Amino acid sequence: MTKETKSLTASQRLEGLEASLSAIDQVMGNITTNLQTAINALTLLSDKVDAIVRLGNSGKSVNSATVAAELIAINIEDLKSRVEDLQGRGMAVLATEIQENSFVVGRELGEETKEVTNERIQFPLFGLIKETKDKLIGKKVGDIVTMGKGRNLLEITEIFNIVVPEIEQLKTNETSEAAASTEATETQETQAGAAQ
Fold first, then answer.
1. Of 39, 86, 103, 149, which is least packed with CB atoms within 10 Å of its CB?
2. Is there a contact between 106 and 122 (Cβ–Cβ < 8 Å)?
3. Residue 42: inside a domain, yes or no?
4. What angle do CA 72, 74, 75 make, to 5 degrees?
5. Residues forming beta bridges with residue 159, ordered by sequence position
6. Collapsing DSSP states into helix, strand and coil, what is residue 117?
7. 107 band by pLDDT with thresholds 50, 70 and 90
8. Is the whole-model pTM more than 0.85?
9. Are 79 and 112 members of one domain?
10. Does 187 reside within a domain?
């Protein structure tokens, strides 16, 4: 302890410690933000390298337009694989009509030109504001929805219902797995006893 610290009251020391911790928290927040920025930059760089390699392997010319187009293709593949993963885990099931528990896949079209402005957009319905939900509920694949004046149109290309496993089903699965594990252990013990 320094002479200055000894002359401070306990309350003053706690206030100083609190100010120091607050400064450390702010620095850590800045470090986290900078780290996320670096991760995003590295991800983009990695995707650009992948795009350039894919273009080179296919014999296409490498320029800013072809790289941008290839980056879009890579992003679309990533989005598709996320949906396929949800389907593979049984958490998304194809549906015919948008409901409260739907996961929607579509593409954006220009309001006036109807040309594709965004090849793929996907989102769970529960994350939207009520006004937007109301526009989408009941729509089917192929429907085109006006999202609002001055905004792009949404063409629905796929609809999935989000399936949340029931707690009872999870408990049943855990009980079945535990029983199978116990049975296997008992079988091993029986076989080991018979071998002796």
1. 149
2. yes
3. yes
4. 65
5. 104
6. strand
7. very high
8. no
9. no
10. no
Q: What angle do CA 157, 163, 164 make, to 5 degrees?
A: 145
Tally the domains of the chain: 2
Quick one: 57 and 118 in the same domain? no
Whole-angstrom CA distances from 45 to 30, 38, 42 are 22, 10, 5
- β-sheet bridge partners, residue 106: 121, 156
Angle between helices 64-88 and 10-58 (to 10 degrees): 110
CA-closest candidate to residue 159, choices 122, 106, 104: 104
Alpha helices in the chain (DSSP H): 3-6, 10-58, 64-88, 130-136, 167-195
Domain termination residue (choose one: 56, 89, 122)? 89
Residues 80 and 54 in one domain: yes
Reported residue count of the chain is: 196
Range of the domain at 134: 93-167
pLDDT 10s digits, 64-88: 899 988 888 988 999 999 999 989 9
Alpha-carbon gap, residue 189 to 177, rounded angstroms:
18
